[in-house]
Amino acid sequence: MKRLKMLILNCICLSMFLCNPAYANNIVLPSPDWGPAVEIGLERVLRAPNGLLYTRNDKKTFLSETHSLEMELAALRGDLKRFKTQVSLMQKYFVSPSGLLAWELSSTGKKATSNASIDDLRTCYALLLADELWPKENFKKPLITLAEKIRIYNTENDTLLDGASWKQSWFKPLAITKNTSELTLSYADLRAMKMLAKRDENWLPILVKTSGFVITGLFLEEKNAWGYSFEKKEFTYNEENLINTMLHLHFLSSIGIIPTSYGRKYAIELLSTGKITDKSGNENITVYALASLFFKDCGFDEAAEKAYSKLSDFIIDEGKYKGLLGYEQEDKTQTVWAFDNLIALIARELLYKVKISM
Q1: For 44-58, how does the pLDDT look when each residue is reduced to its tens digit (9 = 90+)?
Q2: What pTM did the predictor assign?
Q3: How far apart are CA 22 and CA 295, in angstroms?
């Protein structure tokens, strides 16, 4: 009975912020010009011989984060051939003995012994989209396996946690150790969790309870919530990491939970100053890409267009990384992240080409 009351209260809290996503507006912005160049650049300078994308131009590691974004992009485009390739690479390189995805591979392909629940959930989201697009393909098997491992190892008391770690040797069985008592709010990919809850009733209480923390963290204070510590029973805050904040806002708005006050706050900042910056005055590619999607969900179409147009400021005009989105330092050093470029391509896809039905 106590658990039922908690679920009901969380549902009421969740419903207070529900509305239809602004994708229903069907606003079509002018086609961007950097998309093809970014895709060519990724293949030219960041695609490794094993088929994966390097983390960045000066870091020859591989991230499940990057790979999950590639899977999402292929699913959004309806590119079955590309998606099958990405699934094969996921199974070959990232699936660990735990069944979770190793969050990082070394340059030699050695797997990390921990995962990040956000990356595993994003992979589930891509598999869910693919299963709806191509029901005759066998995407249910990896989806069900990964979703079950997340539920077993990355949740506690029906709440998502950041991840798990594991140990295994040739003479000992696999040992799983939950290495965190925290939920980073942006790790809760509510798109994936909502779709999983429609298929598996075991995910419903996880969606409801986790959503309660994600929503409460946003509206409790004016500061940007980072996460919740279950050990300390308190929210933590970080004013510097706007990527975390925009991911948090994006996952909420993408399923129709529209924090209008935050949309207005960042829209005013962008339209009045021409920028969205952290406390140190830094701008970021991923922040603008996610902000464009968040603003569109909120119905702030002018701000959505402006945020998207800001991505052009990051185009590298010359040198080895010409055409990619990146950062150039005063000493002319250039840094290009696969993550930034893939998030920007996903924003391009969602704003210009597809309408997502959740």
Answers
A1: 999 999 999 999 999
A2: 0.90
A3: 9
